[in-house]
Amino acid sequence: MTTSFVDAFAVASYGDPVHRMRRVIPAVGCAVSAHALVDRDVLLWVQRSATTVLVLDDTGLDLVQSVSVRPNQVVFRAGDCPDSIRRALHHGITRFIVSRQEHVDHLAECAQRTTFVYLAPGLPTVSRARRIVVVGLHGDIDPDGTSVDWADAAERALCRTAQARTLGTPAHRIVLSRSADTVVPFSVDRLDSIVHAVDEALRQGCSRWRLARPAVTIAVL
Fold this sequence. Notes:
The protein is of the alpha/beta class and about 220 residues long. Helices cover about 40% and strands about 20% of the residues. It has an 8-stranded parallel barrel with strand order 1-2-3-4-5-6-7-8.
């Protein structure tokens, strides 16, 4: 990683990225990719701030285990291998991004405690399963996506929230992240533009679909 996350954000004159984003969206959450934790400054910042870590593959799972990131900070994206889901559960992770009903079935089969899931695009609802609680929606944005693309992803997630409500699966949270496991931080101007665009999309979408404003987490790295 050639650009330090801390150099890009935390040491800058305006301070921590979370504080900057919360000037626009007061309760916004912040997330980073697990692969960014190879940078010691990122790791220390994540540990100090209890920032959410998105784990997108087995390598990322190995990394969060090796650097002792707390399981309650991790959101794991379920993939094609059931063993990865079992590993994540064994590590104590309870939050998952699921894109197929099979993921929910594996969680229901293996989980020993309540598990909280975010529905990926294309999965508007899931069949009821024991110990599975749907808490929100996940939206992917292209790594080079503009602020308009981030706003569109937020609006689509709100639309899916409205659909999920009518199907009996209420969801109150949205997680937005880049589709690739990138470790390149946003520039200051780009971060500001994205947060303002997401805020406006949430405002308009909640009015359009008569929804309570959901909690939103934005992956900045």
